[in-house]
Specification:
Helix content: under 10%
Distance between the termini: 19 Å
Number of strands: 13
Oligomer: single chain
Radius of gyration: 14 Å
Largest sheet: 7 strands, antiparallel
Strand content: over 45%
Structural class: mainly beta
Shape: globular
Length: 124
């Protein structure tokens, strides 16, 4: 049975955020990827275009999500979905980290501002 123990989860740090890989092909999933994202306090994420649908659920803290130029605050218990092809970004203006649970389909990738394609290792 594929189980990811918290102490065995892979952690990646990039762009003022920590990504903890929970569910992905490397842990036994055929269709879904799930990870926890911790957005550092007082930080602005790198805007990027997602090439697949992405869902966010805020576990702790506060964050502002921007999807195609429209911004909305998220508080614990709030969720948002970004459609494939949208430009997204996360901002944490608070003094505490914001923690989100994020899910996508296997094969997810994003396009960075320089035009390069990025396949997150926490989703592959």
């Amino acid at each position: 049975m594929p189980v990811t123990r918290s102490e065995d989860a892979q952690v990646h740090e990039i762009h003022n955020a920590r990504f903890t890989s929970l569910i992905r092909p490397g842990t036994g999933s055929a269709e879904l990827c799930v990870w926890q994202t911790e957005v550092a306090p007082d930080s602005v994420g790198v805007p990027h275009r997602i090439l697949g649908e992405e869902a966010f659920y805020l576990l702790a803290g506060e964050v502002e999500i921007t999807i195609d130029g429209e911004s909305a605050p998220l508080r614990p218990g709030d969720a948002a979905v970004a459609p494939a092809g949208s430009m997204i970004g996360l901002t944490n203006a608070a003094a505490e980290p914001a923690v989100l649970l994020v899910t996508v389909r296997v094969g997810f990738s994003a396009e960075l501002p320089d035009g390069s394609t990025f396949v997150p290792p926490w989703a592959s």
